[in-house]
Amino acid sequence: MSMQWADDFSRYGTGVSSRTAMLAGLPYAAIGNTNNGQVVADPDANESGRAFKVGANGNNWQRDFRIALPTVVTGTIGVLSRVWLDILPGTESQRPAVMGIQRSNGDYLLYALVELNGSIRVIGRQANALVQVADSVNPIIAPSSWNHWEMVHDKVAGEGSLYINGVQRLTWTGIDTEDNIELVNFSFRNSATLGPNMFLKDLVIWDGLGTQNNDVMGTVIVRRLEPSGDNTLGGWTPSTGTTGFNLLAKDAPNDATYMSADDTPPAPMAFEMQDLPPDVTSVRGLISVARMRKIDGGDATVQNALSPNGVDWDNGADRPITSAFSYYFDVSEVDPAAIGPWSPAAVDDALLRIDRTT
User: Fold this and answer.
1) Tens digits of per-residue pLDDT, 102-148?
2) What is the dihedral of CA 175, 177, 183, 186, to 10 degrees?
3) Over 80: is that where the pLDDT of 1 sits?
4) Quick one: which of 145, 141, 140 has its CA closest to 44?
5) Distance separating alpha carbons of residues 319 and 302, to the nearest angstrom
6) At 345, is the secondary structure helix, strand, or coil?
7) Exposed / middle / buried, residue 35 (Cβ in 10 Å: 0-12, 13-18, 19+)
8) What does pLDDT average to over the chain?
9) What is the pLDDT of residues 21-68, one digit of tens each?
10) Residues 40, 42, 44, 49, CA torsion sign
């Protein structure tokens, strides 16, 4: 494992219904319950995509937008996102705790605050007390603009760095090392008082394990590639029409249209994917995400896989699915044919296979 999760927030729809979708099988543990906490249109008028608007979880700012790590981190973690603040905070109680890492009980080990002048201060746990461990003093963040944040922390050494727009701006040492890192949290405030509107996109979380993406990642963009054509429907049947890819290429959940199969494990289905934009020069990894359910209490295990050529496959977990529609995802960082990072050309040729194994 290196890359644990990535999201561009484009598959959930927008508004209140996006909250329900995001809590269906994904790493999101809490997404706020007041003052939004939902997917919205990109706040940049020059962009046509979507972003997540961070909302408040009552008075508990420490869990406004909490992510439960798919794999507990015992070494190094990296948390990346583009962050938009409408305005800078007006008071000390409105300072956005933009991103932070937490131990199992939800206590912070480390978080980064935006100050009233746009400077950044990092608060860390030392001798089990939260104290300032770094301060830029001078402004770094301007309002109404997308800034790329990357927080990197080595839990074993108790030290780390904060990168803004690819440039290292702060470092720290001396953070307590006893606790594993189990949660990530984003908040637009540091108290019960509401802070500036805050939006996220291009979210990535990685750890220090594995052979790929185990160190500072830099200013990446997360893009969703929808199914664009049928390679084979195998033993699966469209709920309507004669093609399958269009039933799966959704920008919001619609559980009324789907691919289905009977209780005999069918031949797998496979789909072509959209090409990358022509200016993409490198690929960090791919994450296959499928929304699935079974319709009775019997066994049903499904395995997703990715291939650059239809011959060599990177198989995901062979996992049981439940009787409620949920998302299931797998990370692929190595092209199974090249035995190295995925290239843009290989991604353009990629196939996604979905195989019910039992």
Assistant:
1) 999 999 999 999 999 999 999 999 999 999 999 999 999 999 999 99
2) 0
3) no
4) 145
5) 6
6) helix
7) middle
8) 97
9) 999 999 999 999 888 899 999 999 999 999 999 999 999 999 999 999
10) negative
Q: 194 and 236 in one domain? A: no
Domain range enclosing 295: 227-356
Q: What is the CATH number of the domain that holds 304?
A: 2.60.120
Could you tell me the two tokens for 228? Answer: 């664009």
Structural domain contains residue 47: yes
First to last CA, the chain: 26
Question: Sheet harboring 108-114: ordered strands across?
Answer: 28-30, 65-73, 181-186, 97-102, 108-114, 120-126, 129-135
| Same domain, residue pair 170 and 260 | no
Sign for the CA dihedral angle at 244, 28, 210, 51 comes to positive
Token match 């938009």: residue?
A: 84
The whole-angstrom separation of Cα 86 and Cα 146 is 10
**Do 203 and 240 have their domain in common?**
no
Q: Could you count the other beta carbons within 10 Å of the beta carbon of residue 198?
A: 26
Q: What is the DSSP string of 14-28?
A: SBHHHHHHHTSSSSE
Whether residue 217 is contained in a domain is answered as no
Q: Is 58 left (phi over 0), alpha (psi -120 to 50) or beta?
A: left
Taking the C-alpha atoms of residue 318 and residue 321, their distance in angstroms, rounded to an integer, is: 10
Number of domains in the chain: 2
Residue 355 has φ and ψ, to the nearest 5°, of -130, 115
Residue 219 falls inside a structural domain: no
- Residue 126 to residue 102: CA distance in whole angstroms: 14
* pLDDT tens for each residue of 194-206: 999 999 999 999 9
Do the Cβ atoms of 32 and 160 come closer than 8 Å? Answer: no
Q: How far is CA 332 from the centre of its chain?
A: 14
pLDDT, average across residues 177-206: 98
Cβ atoms of residues 331 and 289 within 8 Å = no
Query: What tokens appear for 201 in the block?
Result: 């996109």
Query: If phi over 0 gives left and psi between -120 and 50 gives alpha, with beta otherwise, what is residue 25?
Result: left
